[in-house]
UniProtKB/TrEMBL annotation:
Family listed: Belongs to the universal stress protein A family.
PANTHER family: STRESS RESPONSE PROTEIN NHAX, UNIVERSAL STRESS PROTEIN UP12
CDD domains membership: USP-like (cd00293)
Segments forming domain UspA: 2-155
Segments traversing the membrane: none
Species of origin: Ectopseudomonas oleovorans
Protein name from the UniProt record: Nucleotide-binding universal stress UspA family protein
Length: 256
């Protein structure tokens, strides 16, 4: 069964990840799994030095380092249980009916998500992780978005229940298939929104926009269309601001 997988860590956005996951669970009727990953790059396991040549007096130092690495990883696992427990409590307070499950891994985030992709319905992840500073996007977000072929909800700020949405539409088959998936899921049912395409005005583009809008109208959304000239990297943020959209829906890397 498909599920919502919410990436939880000690970052300030962990609460937003929980709240967005609860909203998705209510909209899509999917269970939630809370995932906490201890990154191998931050908590490495000690290498196997059996059979190594020339260790000599360094052997006891390597053994001590191995013990310290194991102790550090054990403490990190215990420390990781706190945000998972807090996330469970927050989801309960948000009225999530089906009890969420938790999963903790000592691995790389991308490798873990690749392994879980078959059961993934929607991934919910913060714009920045615990070790990513306070500006820009996290170091792993682009890797995850490039790798996965499933919907991803990126949480960039405190949760505001979406009332208005903006779909960035480019007329491609990938975007069309994404709209079909959104329409079938009823994710945007009952919400108001816009479909935006950036480019020159042509009859074909206008017809394509209207067909895309009809897809979302069929699931109960109130939709208008906009075709504007300019560059997508400028026009899309400008329209998000002007339309007061709470949710931006767009494709990524021609596959997601």
């Amino acid at each position: 069964m498909s599920k919502i997988i919410a990436c939880i860590d000690g970052s300030p956005l962990a609460g937003s990840v929980c709240d967005h996951s609860a909203w998705l669970a209510h909209r899509l009727a999917l269970p939630i799994t809370l995932l906490h990953v201890l990154e191998r790059s931050l908590y490495p396991t000690s290498p196997d030095t059996s059979g190594a040549i020339g260790l000599g007096s360094r052997e006891h130092l390597l053994e001590e380092l191995a013990r310290l690495d194991e102790q550090r990883a054990r403490l990190a696992r215990a420390d990781g249980e706190a945000p998972l427990a807090g996330a469970l409590q927050r989801l309960h307070e948000r009225g999530v009916a089906t009890a969420p499950t938790t999963l903790q891994r000592h691995d790389y985030l991308a490798d873990t998500l690749r392994e879980l992709e078959a059961e993934l319905g929607v991934l919910v992840i913060g714009k920045r992780g615990e070790h990513s500073g306070s500006r820009g996007i996290g170091s792993q977000l682009e890797t995850v978005v490039r790798m996965l072929h499933k919907p991803i909800l990126v949480c960039a700020a405190d949760f505001i229940e979406p009332r208005r949405f903006l779909v960035a539409y480019d007329g491609s088959e990938t975007t069309h298939q994404g709209l079909l998936r959104v329409a079938k899921s009823l994710l945007l049912s009952g919400l108001e929104g816009e479909i935006l395409q950036v480019g020159d005005t042509t009859p074909a583009r206008l017809a394509g926009l209207e067909a895309a809008a009809d897809l979302l109208r069929s699931c109960g959304s109130t939709v208008t269309t906009h075709l504007v000239a300019g560059h997508p990297e400028e026009a899309i943020p400008d329209r998000v601001h002007a339309s007061r959209a709470d949710l931006l829906v767009m494709g990524a890397y021609s596959h997601s």
